[in-house]
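Bumping with the actual sequence this time:
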Amino acid sequence: MSSKNTKTSHNLITDNMDLWTSTLIKKSTQGRGSSKKIDLYGIKKLRELILELAVRGKLVDQDPSDEPACILLERISVEKAQLVADGKIKKTKALPEISEDEKPFDLPDGWEWVRLKDIANIYNGNSVNAQVKELKYSNGNGLPYIGTKDIGYGFESINYNNGVNIPENEPKFKIANKGTVLICAEGGSAGKKCAITMNKIYFGNKLFANELFSGVIPKYLLTNILTPTFYTQFSNSMTGIIGGISTLKYLELIIPIAPEQEQNRIVKKVDELMLLCDKLEQQTEDNIDAHNILATTLLDGLTNVESHEELLENWNRIADNFDILFSANPQGELALDHLKQTILQLAVMGKLTPQDPNDEPASELLKRIAIEKEQLIKDGKIKKQKPLPEISENEKPFELPDGWEWCRLDDLTLQSGAGWSPKCNGSPREGNNWGVLKVSAVTWGVFQPNENKELPSHLEPRPEHEIKKNDFLISRANTPELVARSVVVPENTEAQLMMSDKIIRFKFSQYISPDYVSMVNNSQWSKDYYAKVAGGTSSTMKNVSRTQIQMLLTALPPYKEQKRIMSKVEGIMALCNNLKEIIRHSSKTNVQMTDYIVKLGE
């Protein structure tokens, strides 16, 4: 590789720093903290590019005075034969020569393709029964016992302090010496988890030890193992439901070998550039955290205002920082999600629209609903329910505007009921057949009629559980984040869809907007309430009772204001969704550009 070509490869790295650090992806599952919600995709791809350039001979210049790899391999062959003769390693079965079709790319002069068996003594470790490990080897003296869970993703990433130590004189356990390359051979981390041992260890049977012959540098082999090209080769050789690679298949895998002197230069350069990536990663995470603090400060400040003038002042602060807050990357998308939640909070606090003193106050509205409910009881259409506790002052999270009233969701309800969960077909219904809604139909803020399972033909439908337009539907069981989410069934909804028993329907008085109640139910203070009262033995699945839903504290505005609020919210949400699409398109373009640049390096 000429110095000119190496410089071109370096330019791919250095000329695109802004792209590496700005190309971010919003994770599908969000953990705590802003950095847990965003994948640093650009820096991850930069690391891959560095590794690929390294093993293709494009990261450092070749030196014609270096001893070629073919001479190194001849010495290794002699060394290997002597080790076999001395009984220190086992003789391996001869494998076919590497064909041209197996080679994924061309190599520089002085390099050679080799199978792993040609450069290392490869063997797996020993399994230890969990009970024996606990009783005999837990926190004892001896060598650390390393399992797959103790291996990270490259270089010095082994947990030696896992509490399992085995005496060094145990004859049945295989030892991996310092400088051995370990790689996970089975399970979801197969081919991904790998590291170099810094100490002498015992290790598990799902790990392969690569004990290298003289002239092959451990970090050079690890650099190869960490490349996408090697992982593709590895994964193509995996079999089984769990996913794993046999010893024989692993021995057959190929890597490019550089002259020993160039291996040293490559490893040094990779170390240097990976340190740069670490710094870029830290700077990017710091920027993400700073962005999150700015968004939280500005947006949460909106809900803490005392007057309309103060609200306008805070809105102006957001306008001044609009480009930063809603930047064209996942940070901006997360800020938009925060903004949407803030809008809902402002709406249900009476801070989004001005009050009209001519509106009939909510207290009169509640009286009419109570009369309406009493009449339905007298007519035998609904049963009289045990009254719920009165609202105490300690329950009220904030002051309400004039004309508003605190009530419980049950005060607005004429009747409620859960659905039916027969054993259904696994797939959604076909045509106009009857179907039973899954919880996912009411989870995401918009009704999803396709989230259903078809009712078997031998079962009679129960029309009383069929959903109708303007039904308020709420899930009583879901993950902790999603339990008790609600939707309102829209106009022109599909017929012959029934609620399951995990979905509860509430029917309100005509003086109540179901959309407003659903907005209250999906607001942050309602989520906080459900998080406190939700039950269930599983940490991943929670449930709430109908009574707990009926107890939900609701800030009720006059009927006309409910309508004004919903109109305002719908307009703002439409703008937010349009902006989100622009951000997503820009983020997608960044990802495409990043992938394109990485391809240029191959």
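The tokens above came from a reply further down the thread. The first strand starts at residue 25 and ends at 26.
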